[in-house]
Write a structure and sequence with these properties.
about 425 residues; Lyase, Ornithine Decarboxylase, Chain A, domain 1; about 25% strand
């Protein structure tokens, strides 16, 4: 097979022998910025944000909005882009909140998630006038009520509800089942009870409900099922408590094509189909149509990202396997080690050569499980060649660590020009919090 057959997305191409991404030569960028290097296709990020926003407004109504799930990739520039594109954001920590503040993101459009918000988190968010909390449990509900009271605020919240859906994705990223650590279950009656309690609390302004069933989901049915369950729950609450939810947040989770065998998803069409379910249910049950929110993370940034590495060594164990070791690894991409995630791997400077060398791409960290991908086919490579791992925009940089005191990569945005969005960590950065005893 020739490597040209492995171009998964339209933002990839070949110029001379080199791989291009968003119209830029990845090998040239590796020379300019060093490796490991995280590249981001800015136009694609913006276009996908627009696709979500336009489709949601068209099918769900003018007030519908995507919230960019910034856990997928969080740095100041991402919130600036989301702000410029007029979409909201979902944040899960005061670290993400602080980053959004630095970007000048309007916090009335931010939704604070998480299953264990501390008093400090809650105070910080209220102090900075967060739009909504998405509340998981009684403990959190009471804490927000108390702290909001101290600030003289009636705090807007949504409840995170577990609709009891199994979305057929990796167990570690499935979140909507009854026994999930997130949210409150409908099935057990607890979702009804917590709603009733919230309506009685002085400093709580309950505006609606949220669910998120999981991530990297290719089928549409789990989303439609979740929407049906949530709308029916909204109907039940209206009947029993006389409370009509204004918002329904359907979470994130649309899948992304990492390898050739993954399908391509038409996000706009998915949104249209989900909207039909909701409309039908609301019409049949005489329910007002809620304002719909969604929280796409992966599908906004994953295929807008690519990581370039440099080969450090090639080791052939005769009769066993071949290792190609690169200058990054689980410190910038822990997803194969954690979930066995599939990736497409190319040799960025040998795009015209035959991909007939079977090897395992190993990271540089001191751990046998530090692999990026096993049994890939690339051209025969040597020290100094560039390896490109495709579709690394989501949950790579955001899950990066300093294991082995390895510094995190630089992030470069490719738009009209190439510009540094996050500078490369230095070895001084890595030890900057340490105190000499
Ligand atoms: N909303 C909530 C409440 C979430 O928990 C998540 C993801 C999202 C939205 C965004 O979902 P997305 O559109 O990105 O699928 N680290 C894992 C993924 C964890 C997902 C966590 N929650 C991975 O690398 O695959």
């Amino acid at each position: 097979m020739n490597c040209t057959e492995n171009l998964l997305h339209e933002n990839l191409g070949i110029c001379g022998d080199n791989l291009t991404f968003a119209g830029y030569d990845t090998v040239e960028l590796a020379k300019k910025y060093g490796t490991p290097l995280m590249l981001l296709d800015e136009n694609k990020i913006r276009n996908t944000m627009r696709t979500y926003k336009n489709a949601m407004q068209r099918y769900f109504g003018e007030k519908a909005r995507p919230l960019y799930a910034s856990k997928a990739l969080s740095f100041v520039g991402m919130y600036q882009i989301a702000m410029e594109e007029g979409i909201n954001t979902d944040i899960v920590s005061i670290g993400e909140l602080y980053t959004a503040i630095k970007a000048g993101f309007p916090l009335e459009n931010a939704f604070f998630h998480g299953n264990c918000k501390t008093d400090n988190d809650i105070s910080y968010a209220i102090e900075n006038k967060i739009g909504f909390f998405i509340v998981d449990t009684y403990d959190e509900l009471y804490a927000i009520n108390k702290i909001a009271g101290e600030y003289g605020v009636k705090q807007k919240i949504l409840f995170r509800i577990t609709p009891g859906i199994d979305p057929h994705t990796h167990e570690a990223i499935s979140t909507g089942k009854v026994d999930s650590k997130f949210g409150t279950a409908i099935e057990t009656g607890q979702a009804y009870e917590i709603t009733k309690t919230a309506l009685s609390l002085e400093n709580i302004d309950l505006r609606g409900f949220h669910c998120h069933i999981g991530s990297q989901i290719f089928e549409i049915e789990p989303f439609c099922d979740a929407a049906d369950i949530m709308i029916s729950f909204i109907g039940e609450i209206r009947e029993r408590l006389g409370y009509t939810a204004e918002y329904l947040n359907l979470g994130g989770g649309f899948g992304v094509r990492y390898v050739e065998s993954d399908p391509c998803i038409d996000y706009s069409e998915n949104i249209r189909r989900i909207s039909e379910h909701i409309r039908e249910y609301c019409e049949n049950n005489d329910l007002p149509y809620p304002i719909i929110l969604m929280e796409p993370g992966r599908s906004i940034v994953a295929d807008s990202g690519l990581t370039v590495y440099t080969v450090g060594s090639v080791k052939e164990i005769t009769g066993y396997k071949n290792y190609v070791a690169i200058d990054g690894g689980m410190s910038d991409n822990p997803r194969y080690a954690l979930y066995g995630s599939q990736y497409t791997v190319l040799c960025a400077n040998k795009m015209r050569e035959k991909c007939d060398y079977v090897c395992t791409i190993a990271g540089r960290l001191c751990e046998s499980g530090d692999l990026i991908q096993e049994n890939v086919k690339i051209p025969k490579v040597q020290r100094g060649d560039n390896i490109a791992v495709l579709v690394t925009g989501a949950y790579n940089y955001s899950m990066a660590s300093n294991y082995n005191r390895v510094a995190r990569p630089a992030v470069v945005l490719l738009g009209e020009t190439d510009r540094l969005a996050v500078r490369r960590e230095s070895i001084e950065d890595v030890s900057r919090l340490d105190i000499l005893l």
